[in-house]
């Protein structure tokens, strides 16, 4: 049995029609597709502003990860463990007929992308890491995640949302405010709590990353405070030959805050990896 199948229930194979996904076909003569992996409490819509431009060069797939968006959960809190979700990603790629693939992940999705590469390095054409680190983030981000998860367990999702926003129901200056709020409130507490546990307990894959033999991009917004800049520079220094870029006018989510800035970095990186 392949390693990526071990954490999954063989009695319940993945049904691609049950997975929420943005799937853009790309040109007929394109190279490997790219899969984009969202972060904790996120969804496929986090990449909405970049998928069309990316699909000018290749097929683009953006799944809702288990328990998020339009994809059902695959279990309780433990099902959000990074190894289990990485195995799910690989099994889902199998189910939709994708072999070699560029893997790009944001935040917790960046940790997930690293684990996908660890489990199936032979399938990964390149690795793109956006706003993430070697492992668990720093103390301030861990503290926020613990507060949100604890509130969800003790007082419910509405109270957890107010913990995220500092006590308000809708973030007035966020044009996606209603969508983000409703998306958060639709999460099962087990998905939220399990994701927080995965985030704060993430173990570095330093030895693997030091020897990885594919192109790697590490990038983040100039105002990112989820993994601090020195943590993300450390990630880049750990990986031989990694490209490190700071994206201007962005915080933790460049695909939302400065999508063109992200595209200016990501598109040439993927194109160069195609011809490596």
TrEMBL record:
Keyword set, alphabetical order: Transferase
Gene Ontology molecular functions: transferase activity
Signal peptide: none
Domain of life, source organism: Bacteria
InterPro entries from the UniProt entry: AB_hydrolase_1, AB_hydrolase_fold, AB_hydrolase_sf
Residue stretches making up the AB hydrolase-1 domain: 34-264
Record's keyword annotation contains Transferase: yes
Cellular component terms per the entry's GO annotation: membrane
Name this polypeptide is given: Dihydrolipoamide acetyltransferase component (E2) of acetoin dehydrogenase complex
Species of origin: Euzebya pacifica
């Amino acid at each position: 049995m392949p390693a990526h199948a071990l954490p999954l229930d063989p009695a319940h194979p993945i049904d691609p029609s049950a997975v929420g996904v943005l799937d853009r076909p790309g040109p007929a003569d394109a190279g490997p597709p790219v899969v984009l992996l969202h972060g904790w409490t996120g969804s496929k819509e986090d990449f909405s502003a970049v998928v069309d431009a990316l699909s000018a060069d290749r097929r683009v797939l953006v799944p809702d990860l288990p328990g998020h968006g339009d994809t059902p959960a695959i279990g309780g809190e433990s099902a959000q463990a990074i190894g289990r979700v990485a195995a799910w990603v690989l099994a889902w790629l199998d189910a939709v007929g994708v072999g070699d693939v560029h893997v790009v992940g944001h935040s917790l999705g960046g940790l997930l992308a690293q684990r996908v590469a660890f489990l199936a390095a032979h399938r990964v054409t390149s690795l793109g890491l956006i706003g993430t680190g070697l492992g668990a983030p720093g103390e301030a981000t861990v503290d926020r995640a613990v507060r949100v998860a604890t509130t969800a367990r003790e007082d419910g999702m509405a109270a957890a949302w107010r913990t995220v926003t500092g006590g308000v129901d809708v973030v007035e200056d966020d044009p996606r405010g209603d969508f983000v709020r409703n998306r958060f409130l639709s999460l099962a507490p087990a998905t939220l709590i399990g994701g927080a546990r995965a985030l704060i307990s993430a173990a570095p894959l330093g030895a693997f990353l030091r020897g990885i033999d594919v192109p790697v991009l590490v990038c983040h917004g100039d105002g990112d405070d989820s993994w601090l800049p020195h943590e993300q520079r450390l990630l880049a220094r750990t990986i031989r030959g990694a490209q490190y870029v700071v994206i201007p006018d962005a915080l933790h989510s460049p695909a939302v805050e400065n999508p063109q800035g992200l595209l200016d970095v990501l598109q040439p990186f993927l194109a160069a990896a195609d011809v490596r």
